[in-house]
Amino acid sequence: MTLTKWVATYGVTLLVFLALDFMWLGLVAKGFYRRYLGSFFSEKVNWPAAFLFYLIFILGILVFAVLPGFKEASGLKALGMGMLFGLVTYATYDLTNLALLKGWPTKVVIVDMTWGTLLTGIVALAGYAFSMWIS
Is the pTM of this model over 0.85? Predict the structure, then answer.
């Protein structure tokens, strides 16, 4: 994959991730997270930190899921590796919080890890599909 195609794939993957995650966090599960994590929330979102996370996370999706799928011309590989990457990264966050933070809800761990696994797999598959389309 050329650098230009890699950058385009990164951009599309980022847009898909942002669209799905903002829909999840802003609409679908907003009440759920407020109910269980309201006391942990800051009054203002630290947008630079949030967008830095997104930029780094998308890099991980490309390196660990999209590119392996692209190299093998396998959407199933991209999906599976994306789901695994999502499970590992979201489990790192959620299980660390469960281990260290007083009152961190187990329900949040289950829902968030499930969402992260599915989201990352779907986004990896979308990135893979786009990379195959432009190649």
Answer: yes
